[in-house]
Amino acid sequence: MGGHVNKPYFGWWGNLKGPTQRGVVTYVLSPFEQRMFAGVLHNAVFNTSRRVLSQVPYMGTAFALGYFIYTSAKSKHAFLSSKAGHAAEGH
Prior knowledge:
This protein is an all-alpha fold. The chain has one domain (about 1-90). Helix content is about 60%, strand content about 0%. Helix 2 crosses helix 3. It is rod-shaped, with a radius of gyration of 37 Å. It is found in: Mitochondrion inner membrane.
């Protein structure tokens, strides 16, 4: 016949398949849940600085272009608002 042997299954260590106990509550915490905030500040500081520094070339280029446009428009406006600017435009 098959591979079934008439012997009780003991299951996990100590589980003798007896009557279940009532009123016993067992909690188990994963090692990852025991220290949820371990290293959070360290990782936050270094992760944030790494990410910000990786964006500096893009932000710096956009800032420089915006600053150039702003200063040139401001000086052009100052020139056009002056007496020499009015004379140059023919007003």
